[in-house]
From TrEMBL:
Pfam families in UniProt: Redoxin
Keywords, in A-Z order: Cytochrome c-type biogenesis, Disulfide bond, Redox-active center
Location of the protein in the cell: Cell envelope
Name this protein carries in UniProt: Redoxin family protein
Keyword Chloroplast on entry: no
Signal sequence, start to end: none
Domain Thioredoxin: 54-196
InterPro entries reported in the protein's UniProt record: Redoxin (IPR013740), Thioredoxin-like_sf (IPR036249), Thioredoxin_CS (IPR017937), Thioredoxin_domain (IPR013766), Thioredoxin_ResA/DsbE_sf (IPR050553)
Species in which this protein is naturally found: Acetobacter fallax
Broad class of where this protein is predominantly found: other
PROSITE patterns listed in its UniProt record: THIOREDOXIN_1, THIOREDOXIN_2
Gene3D superfamilies per record: Glutaredoxin
Amino acid sequence: MPQRDIRSQLTAPSLCRRTVLIMAGTLIAAPMARKPLRAATATDGPVSPAQILAHAAQILPPLTFADSNGNELDLASFRGQPAILHLWATWCGPCVTELPALAALAPKLRQDGIAVIPVALDHRGPEKVPPFLARLNLSTFTSFYDTRAGTAAALEEPTLPLTLFLNREAQEIARHPGPVRWDDPGAEASIRHLLA
């Protein structure tokens, strides 16, 4: 009798159901696999803001990050103004190289009504990033944090730095994986033109 029970469980419909469930689990898990983050290489830039081209507006997946108090924010918090979302990390050489120029340009862009949203992807963000910025004499440059690097995963982009240019509806209109020469002559005008 027990043998009959085992054989009845191995019938074709039962095997098909198991196979379908296993395959479905594999398909569901596959998109969740993350590409490891990497710093841009010499072939990834840097580029002038004038070289970054706009594309048709694209709705972004939900992206969340935290401020220094641990309050969670998303791009909807910046809706109504054009914005630059800039993903970076303290361990990323090209990020560190370009950060002072972005920090110097950020106040001018804010005066133009453009939000600058730097998001550090360090897993110990709030404890590591402020002292790091202070060592670079950038303690007034406020960064947000994504300690799980969920923004890069949601964007399916493993290269840092990563810069997205967003319209007033928080839709992506341009993207550049790799460093940007934020201190190029005319950088502010090029960005204003891109986000107009």
